[in-house]
Amino acid sequence: MPESYRPHLRKDDDKDRTASQSVTTNTSVGHAKVQDILDQKKGQVVTIRPQQTLHEAVEILRDNRIGALPVADATGALLGILSERDIVRKLADTPGHTLPHKVEEVMTRNVETTTVDEPLVTVLRRMTDGRFRHMPVVDGDALTGIITIGDVVHFRLNQLELEALQIKQLIVG
Ligand code: AMP
């Protein structure tokens, strides 16, 4: 067909479209990493020692309004994780005398961890598959942070809002 009869296609404008007008270049949904969440979180990671009691653990959880505690030794090495769910299970197993038990009797020892470079998509997948809501962040042996499934969902929702705004701007021009 002669060039003059060809309909005008959207891709014809590609050369004029700048990077800032492209939705895919502006939304890093697939590229977001654990570090992006840590950047928005303040404060130290609250931990507990294995020899401490569940009584101390529930007080720390209450005071910090959190749902899990990484269990670390004096050097900061990660030994396990204790979540409110572990405590509830122990409460059902030992009614009336749960609180004096030690953290190390109840904690999960086989902890799945992440690093700052891991994409959020795979962290979310591992949390969903493993059915846990907390993921300690490590650098070698050292515990450097913790992210929760709530943090990931919150981050994702913000990204979706941004994405919707950008699409609106593309349409409105
Ligand atoms: P959660 O949903 O995080 O409160 O935890 C549910 C169960 O999974 C509890 O038994 C926790 O000890 C355990 N758990 C929590 N986080 C992790 C993790 N990152 N790796 C392995 N187990 C975990």
From TrEMBL:
Q: Which domain of life is it from?
A: Bacteria
Q: Which CDD domains match?
A: CBS_pair_bac_euk (cd04623)
Q: Where is this region: Disordered?
A: 1-28
InterPro entries the UniProt entry points to: CBS_dom, CBS_dom_sf, CBSX3_CBS_dom, Diverse_CBS-Domain
A family per Pfam:
CBS
Q: Where is the composition biased (Polar residues)?
A: 19-28
Q: Which residues form the CBS domain?
A: 40-99, 107-162
Going by the UniProt record, its keywords in alphabetical order are: CBS domain
Stated name of the protein? CBS domain-containing protein
Q: What is the originating organism of this protein?
A: Algicella marina
